[in-house]
Amino acid sequence: MIFTEITVTELAAKLADLDRSYQFVDVREPQELAMVTLPRFINLPLSEHADWSPEIYTRLDKDVETLVLCHHGMRSAQMCQWLIDRGFTQVSNIIGGIDAYSYHVDPSLPKY
Fold first, then answer.
1. Of 68, 75, 87, 95, which is least surrounded by CB within 10 A?
2. Alpha-carbon distance 103 to 60, whole Å?
3. Which helix (H) or strand (E) holds 12?
4. Would you call 70 exposed, middle or buried from its count of C-beta atoms within 10 A (0-12, 13-18, 19+)?
5. CB atoms within 10 A of CB 31
6. Beta bridge partners of 41
7. 11-29: per-residue pLDDT in tens?
8. Are 37 and 26 in contact (CB under 8 A)?
9. Interhelix angle for 8-16 vs 97-104, to 10°?
10. Which CATH class is domain 4-104?
């Protein structure tokens, strides 16, 4: 199975939708999060995979729509495939990551 991709504009709509259940996952590093974060995201740094991966089924529900973010979309794509390989059914990579979000949705956010 292949994961889907969504735009940052679609992400903004999902972040604003408080009536539906989503899981928002940010795989960036803590020092990146210190520069800029988005609300509702949990952080699972890809570099710390060995630490959090054994708990993935208690941290996330495999049947809830899961949207994955990084800086540009490469690390999040890796995470999406990893989740799909573990039985997650609704996984989307956020195209362009936080960088695209800061340009196209909220230009007030810091860029790095």
1. 87
2. 29
3. helix 8-16
4. buried
5. 9
6. 24
7. 999 999 999 999 999 999 9
8. yes
9. 80
10. alpha beta
**Of 109, 106, 110, 105, nearest in space to 6 by CA:** 105
Instruction: Retrieve residue 92's tokens.
Output: 């989307």
- Among residues 98, 86, 112, 87, the alpha carbon closest in space to that of 24 is found at 98
Q: How far apart are CA 46 and CA 70, in angstroms?
A: 9
In whole angstroms, what is the distance from residue 93 CA to residue 8 CA? Answer: 10
Which positions are catalytic? 70
Q: How is the chain split into domains, by residue range?
A: 4-104
Sequence-separated contacts (24+) of 99-106 with Cβ below 8 Å: 99/71, 99/72, 100/7, 100/8, 100/72, 100/73, 101/8, 101/11, 101/12, 101/38, 101/69, 102/36, 104/7, 104/8, 104/9, 105/8, 105/9, 105/11, 105/12, 106/12
User: Distance between CA atoms of 43 and 92, rounded to whole angstroms?
Assistant: 16
